[in-house]
Every structure is written in C-alpha cells, then in structure tokens.
Amino acid sequence: MLQDNIxxxxxxxxxxxxxxxxxxxxxxxxxxxESNRLxxxxxxxxxxxxxxxxxxxxxxMETPLAVYAIMKAGAxxxxxxxxxxxxxxSSLVQSCEMTLIVSTSAQRETLLxxxxxxxxxxxxxxxxxxxxxxxxxxxxxxxxLSAAQNFDHSALSVMGTSPSDIxxxxxxxxxxxxxxxxxxxxxxxxxxxxxxxxxxxITSEDVIGNxxxxxxDISTMGYLSSPFAGACAVIIPDAYTRLPASMSQLMExxxxxxxxxxxxxxxxxxxxxxxESRNLEALRWVLYGxxxxxARHVRALMDRLPAIRISNVYGPAEVNQCTxxxxxxxxxxxxxxxxxxxxxxxxxxxxxxxxxxxxxxxxTGELLIASxxxxxxxxxxxxxxxxxxxxxxxxxYYRSRDLxxxxxxxxxxxxxxxxxxxxxxxxxxxxDELENLVMQDPAVEEAAAYAVSAGxxxxxxxxxxxxxxxxxxxxxxxxxxxxxxxxxxxxxxKIVVRSEFPRxxxxxIDRRKLASDANVR
Amino acid sequence: xxxxxxxxxTEQLLNxxxxxxxxxxxxxxxxxxxxxxxxxxxxxxxxxGKPIPPLDVTLDNFSSVNNILGYLKxxxxxxxx
Lengths: 521, 81
Description:
The structure holds 2 protein chains of 2 kinds. Chain A is built from 15 helices and 28 strands. The termini of chain A are far apart. In chain A, β9 (166-172) and β10 form a beta hairpin. Chain A folds into 3 domains: 21-161, Rossmann fold; 193-417, Rossmann fold, CATH 3.40.50.12780; 421-520, ANL, C-terminal domain (GMP Synthetase, Chain A, domain 3, 2-Layer Sandwich), CATH 3.30.300.30. Chain A is of the alpha/beta class. In chain A, the strands form 6 sheets. In chain A, strands 2-1-12-11-13-14-15-16-17 form a 9-stranded mixed beta sheet, with helices on both faces. A 6-stranded mixed beta sheet of chain A has the order 4-3-5-6-8-7. In chain A, strands 18, 19, 21, 22 and 23 form a 5-stranded antiparallel beta sheet that branches. By secondary structure, chain B is mostly helical. Chain B contains 4 helices and no strands. The longest helix of chain B is centred in the middle third of the chain and has 15 residues, at 34-48. The interface between A and B is medium-sized, with 25 and 19 residues.
C-alpha cells in the first residue's frame, strides 16, 4: 500500500524532513503519527474502506497529511481544485458519492452551496489553523483538524485492504456532463513511485521542488515518489508560483536537487526569476512535462544551467508518464520539436494507424500505451473504458489519442492531439465542450476555440464566433456563462466576432488558422 | 498613483468582478494570478518609465497597492505616500 512507504521511511529516517512549506517542516515520524491520528478521526466520522474523500486545499502542509490519512483509513483521496466553479464541485462530489472533504474555512461558501445543491450533508475537516471549534450550518459540519489530536498516534488497522484498492482519483477537465475520473490503485501509484525513484536516482538526500498542486498528476512525484525514497519535497506556496523571484529564492534556500514542473513555470523562472543571481549548485535535474516546451526555451535553459540534466517527461495523466528524454547538450534551439525519448522501464508503446495496424518507422499514428503505472480506468464510466482500452497480443493498452512517430534515430516524437483537447499552461481543456457552451448563447451561430500565444506569458484561450442573423453579442453574458462552468485557465480572454471562419478542404473550421491569425494580431 | 493602481487592478485585471482598496492583500489570497502579476508589473513600468528589476518583484514589495507604493517610494520613484 502507498502508506507503507511512509512507514518504511519513518523507520529509516524518522527525523528527516518529509515535507517543507514556507518555514514549516514535517519529519517522517511527524507525518506518520499525524496521519495516523487523522485517519482515526476519519474512521470515527464514518470513513471506511473504499470510500472517496475529497481534498480541497490550496498548496499547504496539510495536503500530504490528508493524502496519507485518507489512504490509511482505507479510502481513496480525490484532489479538488479550490478554484473550481461550484457546479463542477457539485458534480464531482455527486459522482464520487463523497460525504467528507478535507478543506479549509476559506471554501465555506462553496461547500455550503454544494451541500445545498445536492441536498446532502457534508462533513468538512477544516485545516484552518485558527479554527478550534466544530461548527455546523445548513447541512455542512466543519470539524477542526485539531480534533485529530484526541486520537492515538499508532496505526489504524483496516481489514481487507489490498494493492488493487483505489488509492486516488484525479478528475480531468470535463465541464458539461460528468467529469472523467482517472482511477489509480495502490498498485499503479506504487509502480510509479518505484519506477521514478529508480529512474531519477532519488535518494533520502534529495530535495524535490514540488510545483504542481495535488489535482495535477505531476504532483505524484512530490506526494508519492518522494516518500518512497525518504526524500524531502518542498511544497511551493501558491503566491510564489506567481512570483518567480521568490520561487527561485526558495530553490536556493531549500537547496533543491530536483525540480519538476510544467514548462510555463520554467519560462517564468527564466524570464523573471533572476536565476543568474541564485546559487543553484545543489540542483542536479530539471524535469518538465504536461505539454511541449519549445526548443529555443530548452536551449536557453541549458545555457542558463549548463551543469544540470534537463529532461522532457511525457505521458497522459491516465498512464502517469511513460517516456522521458534527457535533452542532449548540443541541441541548437531551432529544432521543430524535442523528442519525448524512450519508453520508461516496464512500459510499452505501439503506434497505430486508423485501422489499428502498427505503422512503419517515420510514420505518424496514434500512441497506445501499456504501463504498470496506468489507471485502472475512468471512474464508473464503463462505456468510456470499453472504448479507451485495447488489447493487443494479450497486453492491455490505453489509447492516448496523441499522435506520435518513431524516428529513424529510434526516438519517439509527439505530434499533437488527435482531437480537440488543448493545454493551457499544462491544464487540459476540452475545446468542443467550451465551444458547445458558447454556442448555447442565442446570439451565437457557431463558435471555435483555440489557444493563442501570449509570448513568455504562456498561452490563453480565445474564442471566435459567427453570430446568428441580425444579433449582437453580449460578451459579458457569454463570459459569465463560461465562468460558471469552466476553471479560470479555460476562460477565454476575448470573443472575436467574425463574418466567416477559415475552413479546411474538408469544410471543418480551421482552428490553426484562427490561432495564427490571433497570434499575428 | 495610488488611485490609478487601484483602478487598473479593479478594471483591467479583475474585470470589475470585485472591489479592492490599497490595503487589500492581493497575492497570497490568490486575487491576482501569474498573468495578472505580470500585467501589473508591466503597467507600473510603463507609468514610471523605468523597468522594475525582476528580483524586486517579491511578496513583500507587491502584496498590496500600499506595499507597491512603499517599494516605489524606497526606490525614489514616487513622492506619494
């Protein structure tokens, strides 16, 4: 079980830091004991084997505590983005039949609204430090985290647990209809922890910069792999992710040895983080993933940090990484794209054409992935699961819907999505869902959404529309509708009214042309 | 400059979705995201006609309009309190 990694690291390195957040430290022994206490509180509140418990927290020290306490209680943790609109929170709570969420009083309004919306009582473990009393209002009970102190720090015993139990469910962007929950078991989570520790040579001496929030699968290195090795993971505070100079200062102060984030965070560090003024001699490896990183940026990073290994990590959240590539020091920066490298140990890929036949070297096709780190399936979506898995020669593959090729050099290359999914600063957006929502507006005849570059500032979503006959666009009305359903990174900055759309030869809207028109503007 | 900053933040960065005053904490609270912080720095640079050193864009200096003014004053870039 994933929590066995905590137990083992506590035996070996009881007084070593497991996590750091601002000026707070938590050793393995503290993490072990406090998560035991919290797991007992959760059990007392009715959490039992197989339940789903939400974690709706901004980056904080309580996150790893909640992760391990929930698993120790035999349940699965469900990360929830605190910025999610209420409708999405409700949808998630409902699909998971969640009755308990670890959160803070900062989320009070949202949680009350959800409890009211679903007409279901919610129990909230309130991690707000200043909160000492239990409060109850309109179907929501807020129990202070400090209540866990009433319980013993020894391990709770839960009957019948097994590595095939669900450890966590990560929901991906899916706004209209039910969001898709990626189900990982203790087995798949541990396969990732074990493999990544081996792959990156993570030891108890390592200090990992954990940039990603819990609801992002990149965070599994900080929350699962780090304890596997007895290393320390530094949780980057939310405010610092907006202040690159503070983030680089933290890298220096904490003597981080490994950094793992989306490319956007690295671009911020390079353009505004004052890296040249920082002592980063402890840093040995920079890993990036979640979306492609332009070769010119990688070249600039290598020039800035010449002694450091830089690797591109690829893999949909459904498989929790399956290839990686250590970028060679002689790249020019003019390459069209950087390879995604080789398949990780224990994983396999196939590249197939639209008839599911394996393609020849150099040709592009859909990437199918088999990995011990892959999800069990989408949560309670049997039809989706039937469609997204494919058995080939007795091996179960996941259909990534990513386009890839294997070069003559034997390396794998990524060629974008087969469908309309787009990533903004590493976050997935289902373009057709956004477009469908905008098209619900009475003034809109057709809508097309696409990502536009904002230079070093990353990317933004923009939407172009054709209006219905003699209509005027009420931009605010449309944007408000979108904001009610989509998280902030998916909200368009602008709605551009056009008289017609550029189209491909097959008559489909040419979103690439719309995006390049916008980039020129 | 204080009122101009408050106006810029409220209208351009927050799209009038909420009101803030010069004392309001903007960063830890999450009121401003990464892109908003960048836009704010760019706006201030344009107003004062000088670039702001990236290393100066820290929590202490930028967490509220009052703190920004305090930082600018300490740099000799504005006479306003």
